[in-house]
Amino acid sequence: MADISLNDLSFRYPGATDETLANLNLEIANGEAHALLGASGAGKTTLLNILSGLLVPTTGSLCFDGEDVSELSGRRRNVAQVFQFPVLYESLSVAENLAFPLKTRKADATLISQRIDYICKELEIDDIRARKPATLSLFQKQLVAVGKALAWPDVSMVLLDEPLTAVEPRTKWRLRQTLRRVQADLKVTMIYVTHDQTEALTFADRVSILSAGGIVQTGTPQELYSSPTHEFVGHFVGSPGMNFLPAEALGISGVERAGFRPEWVAPGFLEGAEADAPGATSTGGVIAGAITGRVLRTRIQGAQQGKPFGLITLATAHGEIAIQGEIPESTLKAGDRLKVQLTRCVGYNGQRKVRDIEFL
Ligand SMILES: Nc1ncnc2c1ncn2[C@@H]1O[C@H](COP(=O)(O)OP(=O)(O)OP(=O)(O)O)[C@@H](O)[C@H]1O
C-alpha cells in the first residue's frame, strides 16, 4: 500500500488541442478510501487510466510513496482494478479465479492457499469457493472480482471503476457496504470512480470533485456538503443542489453570489404562509437573509414532530429556489406568498468561496 500523490499532473490526448486534465494536485493517504466524482466527460476515465498505468501524464507526475511511477506499468506499480462488469475466468472455480493473480506472479502454494482462505473469509464467500462463475449472481461475481483485486498482499491501491453498475439493483447497497467494511478492515488504499454522488459520499473518507478536467474541491462528504468552496460543488452535491441568489439581493457586501442549502432556513419560520404579511413585498425583496417569494409547489418528504416536512419551491424576484422545512398542512398552496429566514449561506466571488455568512 502507498501514499499516492498527483503533482501538477496534466494530460492531453495525442492530436487534441486542449488538455483533458489540467494541473491536478492531490494527496491520497495510505489506507484511505477516496472517491473521484464527476459528471460525464469530466475526465474520470482518463485519470483512472493514468492511475492504472494505461496512460502516461503529458506533464507533471504521479508518485507512490514519493517515487515517480508515471511511466511504470500497472503491474509494476502493484495496482489492481475492479471493472464495471466482473472479469472472471468462466472455466475456473471461484478459488481458482482468486488464485490466478498470485499464480501469474509465481507465488508459492502456501501463500496462495493462505490468501484464498483469508479473502474468502473477509468477503464472506467461503461457501461459493468451489463454484464456477456461471452459477453465481452478479453480486457474487463482483465480490469475487474484488477478491481477485485484493489477492496480492502488497497491492498499492485498488481502483474501483463504477463497481456497482452491473449488480442487481437490490444488492447494490450490500456490495457498497461490503466494500466499505473490507476497506476499513484491510486498510487498503481504494479509489472509487463514479458519477453517482450517493455512492461516492457513502463510500469514501474523502471525495475529489472533478469538473472539466480539474479537481474543483477535495474534502470529506460533510465538508463538500456544508462548505462547497466552488459553486460547481454546491450545484453538483446534494439533491436538490444548493440555491444561488445574487449576494446584493441578500444585503451582503464583498461577494457576488450567495449559496445556501434547502435546509438552511430558520426552524419554524415556515409556519403560516405570510399571505400579504406586512413587510413581504410582492416583488420578492430580500434583505439580510429574509427571502420572500411565491410558492410554486410543495413536496412532502416526511414528518417532524407530527407535522409534514419537505421541500418548497419558491419563485423569488431573483430566481427559483428550493427550501426545506415544515409545510403547514392545508394552509400552504401554490401561489401563496411566503417569507423565510436563512440561518447561513456561503458567499462566492468568481465561483470561488469567499466566506461563510451567518444570519442568526
Ligand atoms: N481517446 C481520446 N482521444 C481524445 N479525447 C478523448 C479520448 N478519450 C476521452 N477523450 C475526451 O476527454 C474528455 C474526458 O473524457 P473521460 O472519458 O475521461 O471522462 P469521464 O468523466 O470518464 O466521462 P464518462 O463518465 O462519460 O466516461 C472528454 O471530453 C472526452 O471526449
Automatic annotation (TrEMBL):
Residues 4-237 form the ABC transporter domain. Keywords: ATP-binding, Nucleotide-binding. It comes from the Bacteria. The keyword Nucleotide-binding applies. GO terms for molecular function: ATP binding. The keyword Nucleotide-binding applies. This is ABC transporter ATP-binding protein.
